[in-house]
Amino acid sequence: MLNDEFHKDPQLTTSLDQYEVVIPNQLINFKKSRWQRFIQYLAYPTKDPLEPICTSSVGFTLLKIVPLVLAIFMTILQILLQ
Fold first, then answer.
1. Which one of 45, 58, 61, 75 has the fewest CB atoms closer than 10 angstroms to its CB?
2. Is the CA virtual torsion 71, 72, 75, 81 positive or negative?
3. How much is the pTM?
4. By C-alpha distance, which of 59, 62, 58 is closest to 70?
5. For the segment 31-71, what is each residue's pLDDT rounded down to a tens digit?
6. Are 13 and 7 in contact (CB under 8 A)?
7. Nearest CA to 16 among 26, 7, 29?
8. Phi and psi of 32, rounded to 5°?
9. Transmembrane region positions (predicted)?
C-alpha cells in the first residue's frame, strides 16, 4: 500500500532514486546468539514504577505512611485473633 504511493508521485520517485544505500554484508549476515539477546535484554534500562509517586510530596508522604499503617493494622489484627 505505501509502496504504491511512492510510485505514483514522479517527483518523489526521482528524489528517492538519487540516493543509494549500501549495506555491508557483515550487517546483513549478523545475527545475535540467544545468550547475547538475553544479556542485552537484562542490560536495557527500566522505568521506575514508583517515580510518579515519589516526585510529588503527597505521594512521598503516602509512601512513608502506608507501610506504617499496614503494620499497625496487622499487629492489632493478630492481637484480636489470639
1. 45
2. negative
3. 0.39
4. 62
5. 788 998 899 899 988 888 878 877 888 888 888 899 999 99
6. yes
7. 7
8. -75, 145
9. 58-81
